[in-house]
Design goal:
This is Lytic murein transglycosylase B. Pfam families: SLT_2. Keywords: Signal. The active site is at 126. With 344 residues, the chain is α+β, with helices and mostly antiparallel strands. It has a domain at 20-70 and 133-220: Helicase, Ruva Protein, domain 3, CATH 1.10.8. The chain has helices at 2-16, 30-42, 48-57, 62-69, 78-85, 88-100, 102-112, 116-127, 138-148, 155-182, 204-210, 226-239, 271-276, 309-317, 321-342, and strands spanning 136-137, 190-191, 249-254, 279-281, 292-298, 301-307. The protein has a four-stranded antiparallel beta sheet with strand order 4-3-6-5. A two-stranded antiparallel sheet has the order 1-2. It is globular and about 65 Å long.
């Protein structure tokens, strides 16, 4: 296997590695470096020489720090965020993608209960159906953010960034472990500036925990195997509590004087409780299902949405209510073509 052959070269590479070979820019804090080495070898069972070799090959990239400091969608209101993903082209491409892979997606839907259009919508939002999977070296991205994540401002902000740095160092160790497990050439892996990879943009920890072998070849390949990609996205949803056949989200109507501030995105409030606060479903649901309230700035003014358990599951993929609503709405647009084809 390519991964095994490459691993045999690592001791030799470690002798060659250095600033002239791969590493450039600032040097990691010695204490953090030692802590990382202990974590990678102890927690993940990686040989110390292999870890040292990969660290020597990694390069600091200022462009990654800059990208992390200004995520494109984070500051946009819903009225500006939605048009990024709900375009005529993305909808049309999603319908075509669903039609082309209908059989494979239908099998995953039958096995997991996750609708085919939901899987396709995730791929549409994340990578435009595999056409934009990221160009940053994953090794460099996780190395840069793990050891040089920008920390400044108030003490609580510094502490938050310190925790994020620890998160990315853990992801760096996990991608090294992942490369060994799946026979991946870590040096050639490309992804987002945050280190997310493949068609579904899985972080290394998510790849290791939730990826599935959908084509039965003994590997979990989220770069080239669509059956693996479909099965893995669906499994991520299932692992986080997807409820087959249950609603995702629904517009809510606010009565006079309606006021409610939910505690997070988890669906923990009964419809009766939300009704007492002045918010009711735009359409009768027929049952008192737990939900949360999402309030966004739309084109026509304030929008209120009820997010159910499956809405919360989508936010486990990306912890943004706007992301979850964009995925849901795109999935409905994609599904419209299938539903029209099945109509008598």
């Amino acid at each position: 296997m390519p991964g095994i052959r490459f691993r045999l070269l690592l001791p030799f590479l470690s002798l060659l590695a250095g600033p002239a070979f791969g590493q450039s820019g600032p040097v990691p804090d010695p204490g953090l470096r030692a802590e990382f080495l202990a974590q990678a070898t102890g927690k993940y069972g990686l040989p110390a020489g292999e870890v040292e070799a990969w660290l020597a090959r990694a390069s600091y990239r200022q462009s990654i720090v800059d990208a992390m400091a200004r995520p494109a969608e984070a500051v946009k209101p819903w009225k500006d965020y939605r048009p990024i993903f709900l375009t005529g082209k993305r909808i049309a491409d999603g319908r075509l993608f669903l039609a082309r892979h209908r059989e494979a997606l239908a099998k995953v839907e039958a096995d997991t209960g996750v609708p085919a259009e939901m899987i396709v919508a995730i791929l549409g939002v994340e990578t435009s159906y595999g056409s934009i999977t990221g160009s940053y070296p994953v090794l460099d991205a996780l190395y840069t953010l793990g050891f040089f994540y920008p920390a400044s401002g108030k003490p609580e902000q510094v502490e938050r960034e310190r925790r994020r740095g620890a998160f990315f160092r853990d992801e760096l160790a996990q991608v090294m472990r992942l490369a060994d497990e799946e026979g991946l050439d870590l040096a050639s892996l490309r992804g987002s500036y945050a280190g997310a990879m493949g068609w579904g943009q899985f972080m290394p920890s998510s790849y290791r925990a939730y990826a599935r072998d959908g084509d039965g070849d003994g590997r979990r390949d989220l770069f080239r195997s669509l059956p693996d990609v479909f099965a893995s996205v669906a499994n991520y949803f299932v692992a986080h509590g997807w409820e087959p056949g249950a609603p995702v989200a629904m517009p809510a109507v606010a009565g006079e004087g309606a006021r409610f501030q939910p505690d997070g995105l988890e669906a923990r409030y009964s419809l009766a409780e939300l009704g007492e606060a002045g918010f009711r479903p735009a359409q009768a649901l027929g049952e008192d299902r737990p939900a949360t309230l999402v309030t966004l700035e739309g084109d026509a003014g304030v929008e209120h949405w009820l997010g159910f358990r499956n809405f919360y599951v989508i936010t486990r993929y990306n912890r943004s209510p706007m992301y979850a609503l964009a995925v849901y709405q795109l999935s409905r647009e994609i599904a419209a073509a299938r539903e029209a084809a099945l109509a008598p």
